[in-house]
Input
Amino acid sequence: MQAELVERARRGDREAFSVLAAGAVDRLYAIARLSLRDTELAEDATQDALVRAWRDLPTLRDVERFDAWLYRLLVRSCTDIGRHRRRWRAEVTILPEPAEADSAAAVADRDLIERGLRRLTVPQQTILVLTYYVGLSPSETADALEIPVGTAKSRLHYAIEALRAALAADERTGVGATREERMA
Amino acid sequence: MKANDSLERGIADVYHAEAPQRAPDWVLASALETIESTPQRRVLIRAPWRPIDMSTFAKVAIAAVVVLAVGVIGVSMLGPRSSSVGGGQPTASPSPSASASPSTRATPSGSPASSPPPPSATFTSTMHGISTGYPEAWKTSAATQPWPGTGLSFTSPDIDYMYDTELTHDLFLAMASQPLAGKTGEQWVTDFLADPESDCASGTSTPITVDGATGQLCGTLVAVSAGGRGYFVRLYTSSDRTSLVDVYGDDYFTSILATVRLHPEDARDTPAAPSASSS
Output
């Protein structure tokens, strides 16, 4: 069914593409939102990816790979938009958010991780999202990122290490409360 | 349980807690509105057009080097057919075929290397009466219809393609042929290169001989005529990927052309049977 829609859309059928886009937009937006951690930028990235998909669809040779190809376009859009964000962020001072008192360990951990994720670069965020949210395999992730599988595995490893370092730095500098303090 | 497992599960939890369930309606609406006025992209078989700001002297010098290199390769590889690129006896095959030399390892595709993979495999087109070498790791897509001479798109079913498995439409070889239809070979070549779709209309072409057939070389596009047919062979590298252009440039194209064999007597001008395959 989807392959038929993709084939029709590839030949210029806008109605078929509308159906495909409607079926993908929520998923794309969620990925963009998690990767960019910014609502407006995620909206822009999602729109951009959909427009790119329509424009470049004639270049897609294997209609069965539409989903993977769509992820690839979204990653490109997030990367492009993420570059602008990085420039903007370089000009402002990021103040740590005040920690909210919360006695639930799970929520506290989640808060720490969420704070750590904010410190990662867009490429690091993206590979974590594709792996742990979308659930792509290393080869599928590599395909979406247009990099070799080995590089994808390595990038994932370093993204996790960067997150771990960010968490450790937070605890060392006392940003918010340490995990132990939260759980006390 | 490893600490990493815990962290990874924590990341997944954060994502699933944070992920929005729905995109704002206007995101899709706005995208579709933009698409209404957005034409789809046709992947034309364009040459990476680099010598745009070169001096005339530089253009002439490069053309001379290319012609010289073609001649040297012809001498070293083809013996008596020394004035041409390619050569040897045409090979006919009942169906499009691709073969690879098992002794040659190709550079992994996807990531441009400083030295590109050698054209160690051979693709033979029965639709167009031509064969060529291409990198062993690439895929092939055989033409199933006669080429009408227009519509140079990557997805055209009337053109033979050999393409990098990861870069696909960013790096590929394409070739096709058609009857001269009353034109002289020279006129066909001139007309083909003058067509804006060939992306040579504003460029400089130089004379070249491929497998004994004369024609013109324009960047990494060659057009020749042989046996009452006009042929083109294009090595396309996306200008979006400048590193590709550097690696898969004129020298590489010359090495490809040295493997080209023209056998117009095997060309067909009727659609192939549905069983025509691609690899």
